[in-house]
Amino acid sequence: MKRTCLIFISVLLLGFAASSQKVIRVQSCNNDYISKEADSLKSLYSKDGFMLLKEASITMESEYEMPVVVPLTQGSWYQFVFIGDHTSRLYEVRMYDWNERQVIYQKKMWGDVDGNIISYSYIPKFSEFHMMKPVQVNKEKKKNLCGYVMLFKKVGDQNTITSR
């Protein structure tokens, strides 16, 4: 009986300790402007032979990276897209391989033609997890900026993909 009571109290105390810690959770957001851009890009890439693998709307804070981890297959052709809040002035995406080497870096400014959209192709040399880290800087230092990430994979003739 004492052992059961001791286990119960231990679990209860651990539960209180765990609930008191701040946990970062990915939260979705809703922005009609970004949703329309995302729908247009999905249509464009599907016409070019890409299949949408993952997509997520994410609530971001100005100047803070939002890491997105994805498994990639060696030799496959991927297209990554990040869409930032149109009121931000700077948008950056860095991508790292499993060994934490930066393999992609792109930066866009508010005045650029497609300023709030960063899109790039990537063909991994190894099958492993990669981390994409989008960030946006807003002039008002907002905490609830909307962002959108998409991962596409080229489908079709594999010989065309690997010879590229």
Could you give the topology of this structure?
Elements (H helix, E strand, L loop, with lengths): L1 H19 L11 H16 L2 E11 L7 E5 L5 E7 L3 E9 L5 E8 L7 E6 L5 E11 L6 E10 L3 H5 L2
Antiparallel strand pairs: 1-8, 2-7, 3-6, 3-8, 4-5, 4-7
Short description:
By secondary structure, the protein is α+β, with helices and mostly antiparallel strands. It is 24% helix and 41% strand.
Descriptive report:
It is a single chain. The protein has about 160 residues and is of the alpha+beta class. It has one domain: Jelly Rolls. The chain contains three helices and eight strands. The chain has helices at about 1-20, 30-45, 160, and strands at about 50-60, 70, 80-85, 90-95, 100-110, 115-120, 130-140, 145-155. The strands form two sheets. Strands 1-8-3-6 form a four-stranded antiparallel sheet, with helices on one face. A four-stranded antiparallel sheet has the order 2-7-4-5, with no helix packed on it. The longest helix is centred in the first third of the chain and has 19 residues, at about 1-20. About 25% of the residues are buried.
